[in-house]
């Protein structure tokens, strides 16, 4: 069990951050994203029960015989309660019991890896595994803490509309302990929220269902019609996020420009809901009025669905509480699967400090992986410079450089397949999509991409389990329980046609892959020029990419060879140290295919 470090706690010093600038700490962050339900189980006594995951108004009831799934079971196998239903349907009901204690128990592991900042998927109380369908914004999910039953009693005793009545549940207190322990390691932590919608079990929505047009919260939501009690039919109709009935949308107001999915618009949200959101924001940024005990920022889900007026107000509120808080928005698809959003309107200093920078990963995949949409080095360079030039310079360095997340295929699987990025990236839509253990070429290509990720502009991001060597297709296969070395795992079924006769893959912790991540993280942390230095592309020819990172004191040259043969390079005058091999180089050197070098000038 975790031993507290609270006695040694020192909060990271707040920086004097101008309102329109990203906090300096975000530019040197090594981000690690945690999906709590699948990260690590820390205790058994808080396992979810059927009543914790039921969503009655939209018919999602735990099947008869439901039970918590075994952590090490073959992901594609079925428990008795799952039989007779499609695999994808069963995954909505699966719970593995990951919790806050599991995160606490692995902080030493994350510190050893070199992580400096945690981005945690929603922790708010909710019935789903992903927690974007909040029951309560202002409480941590009861099954993430040590006393679910007691926490439900505390929540029931409050007036959720009145922050003066809010109490700290056992789960809330454990989360505050997690913040302290993260800060004790000089790490940062941000929470994930969707202010665009709630779940149907959310307290205000439940009041609307009960009281219809008489509800105090009827204006909080996008309700198209209320039920007429004088008719036998139920006329109640509302807008759910992208048509999903379990995610009723918060009402948008003061909309002055045309609203199109995937594009920014001017507007705000209902004032009552907005003030509740601000109260929740203050609760986690400054628990009991103390910012030292609070989180360091927010990741904001489906940011394009909310008007820019709200985001400007939200930034003012956040920065008035904590001057160096970091705000990163999910700004993704303009037109799926071919056009990503323009981050420009969100990164001018009045909205976010950064976005999840999928815009930089997609061309990188097409350069480093073997796909049906290849880019050469010049095209890759042009793509990166196009994206960087759309945002102010300080924001480029603060970008959260995501490669994979809870919404994408895992990196090894993404590199193993040749399809268009995020298009039919699963065996249900593409029967020939490969979901098993990748071949050795894929490992080499991915590890070469990682050299680029940890030497380019922007803060590197790791989706939990990538450093372990996990693989998996698009949602839900990227959300498997993590392959910890102290667990035993059944061989995993291959779910589609692949070369060879093997039907199963052995799965588990990949120590070699972990050490590669650890080495690259250490290189970045030990060389600040990789965080803040300028970048200059020196060679972009075919599959050869060379660039340098430099400032007034240091220079690092990065060589990347994606050609199908070895390549000999002539170095500029001087002596260099290859940070990947610890070898000194002062003349021509050769890189084999799918290999790279990170050369630091010594003389």
From TrEMBL:
Q: Does the keyword Hydrolase apply?
A: yes
Where does the Glycosyl hydrolase family 13 catalytic domain start and stop, copy by copy?
Answer: 33-524
Region Disordered, annotated ranges = 1-20
Coiled coil location: none
Q: Name one Pfam family in it.
A: Alpha-amylase
Indicate what this protein is called per its UniProt record.
Glycoside hydrolase family 13 protein
Which SMART domains has this protein been placed in? Aamy (SM00642)
Tell me the organism. Answer: Mucilaginibacter terrenus
- Supply the alphabetized keyword list: Glycosidase, Hydrolase
Q: Which regions are flagged for Polar residues bias?
A: 1-16
List the CDD domains hit by this protein, alphabetically: AmyAc_CMD (cd11338)
Q: Which SUPFAM superfamilies match?
A: (Trans)glycosidases (SSF51445), Glycosyl hydrolase domain (SSF51011)
Biological process (GO) annotations?
A: carbohydrate metabolic process
* GO molecular function list: hydrolase activity, acting on glycosyl bonds
Q: Which InterPro entries match?
A: GH (IPR017853), GH13_cat_dom (IPR006047), Glyco_hydro_b (IPR013780), O16G_dom_2 (IPR045857)
């Amino acid at each position: 069990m975790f031993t507290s470090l609270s006695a040694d706690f020192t909060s990271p010093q707040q920086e004097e951050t101008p309102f329109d600038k990203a906090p300096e700490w975000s530019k040197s962050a090594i981000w690690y994203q945690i999906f709590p339900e699948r990260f690590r189980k820390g205790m058994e006594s808080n396992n979810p029960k059927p009543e914790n995951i039921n969503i009655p108004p939209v018919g999602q009831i735990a099947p008869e015989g439901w039970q918590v799934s075994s952590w090490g079971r073959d992901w594609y196998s079925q428990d008795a309660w799952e039989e007779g239903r499609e695999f994808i349907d069963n995954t909505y009901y699966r719970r593995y019991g990951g919790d806050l204690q599991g995160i606490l128990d692995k902080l030493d592991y994350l510190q050893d890896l070199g992580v400096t900042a945690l981005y945690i998927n929603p922790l708010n109380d909710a019935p789903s595994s992903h927690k974007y369908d909040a029951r309560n914004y202002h409480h941590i999910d009861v099954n993430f803490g040590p006393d679910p039953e007691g926490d439900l009693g505390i929540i029931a005793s409050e007036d959720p509309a009145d922050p003066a009545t809010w109490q700290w549940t056992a789960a809330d207190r454990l989360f505050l302990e997690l913040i302290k322990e993260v800060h004790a390691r000089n790490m940062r932590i941000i929470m994930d929220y969707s202010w665009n919608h709630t779940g149907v079990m959310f307290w205000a929505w439940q009041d609307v269902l009960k009281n219809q047009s008489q509800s105090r919260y009827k204006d909080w939501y996008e309700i198209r019609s209320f039920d007429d009690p004088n008719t036998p039919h139920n006329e109640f109709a509302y807008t759910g996020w992208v048509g999903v009935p379990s995610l009723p949308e918060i009402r948008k107001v003061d909309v002055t420009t045309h609203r199109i999915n995937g594009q920014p618009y001017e507007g705000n949200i209902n004032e009552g809901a907005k003030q509740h959101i601000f109260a929740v924001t203050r609760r986690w940024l400054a628990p009991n009025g103390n910012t030292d005990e609070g989180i360091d920022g927010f990741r904001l889900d489906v940011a394009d669905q909310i008007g820019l007026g709200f985001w400007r107000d939200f930034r003012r509120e956040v920065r008035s509480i904590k001057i160096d808080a970091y705000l990163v928005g999910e700004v993704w698809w303009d037109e799926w699967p071919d056009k990503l959003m323009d981050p420009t309107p969100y990164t001018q200093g009045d909205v976010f400090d950064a976005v999840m920078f999928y815009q930089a990963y997609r061309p990188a995949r097409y350069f480093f992986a073997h796909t049906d949409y290849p880019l050469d080095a010049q095209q890759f360079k042009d793509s990166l410079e196009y994206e960087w030039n759309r945002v102010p310079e300080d924001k480029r360095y603060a970008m959260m450089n995501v490669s994979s997340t809870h919404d994408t295929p895992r990196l090894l699987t993404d590199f193993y397949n040749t399809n268009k990025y995020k298009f039919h990236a699963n065996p249900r839509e593409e029967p020939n999509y490969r979901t098993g253990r990748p071949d050795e070429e894929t490992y080499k290509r991915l590890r070469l991409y990682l050299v680029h990720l940890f030497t380019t502009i922007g803060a590197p991001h790791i989706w939990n389990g990538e450093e372990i060597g996990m693989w998996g297709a698009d949602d839900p296969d990227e959300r498997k329980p993590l392959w910890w070395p102290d667990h035993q795992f059944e061989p995993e079924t291959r779910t589609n046609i692949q070369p060879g006769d093997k039907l199963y893959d052995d799965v588990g912790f990949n120590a070699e892959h972990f050490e590669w991540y650890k080495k690259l993280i250490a290189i970045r942390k030990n060389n600040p020029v990789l965080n803040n230095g300028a970048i200059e592309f020196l060679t972009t020819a075919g599959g050869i990419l060379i660039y340098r990172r430099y400032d007034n004191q240091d220079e690092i040259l990065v060589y990347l060879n994606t050609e199908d043969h070895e390549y000999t390079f002539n170095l500029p005058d001087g002596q260099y140290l290859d940070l990947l091999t610890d070898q000194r180089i002062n003349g021509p050197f050769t890189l084999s295919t799918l290999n790279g070098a990170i050369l630091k000038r010594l003389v």
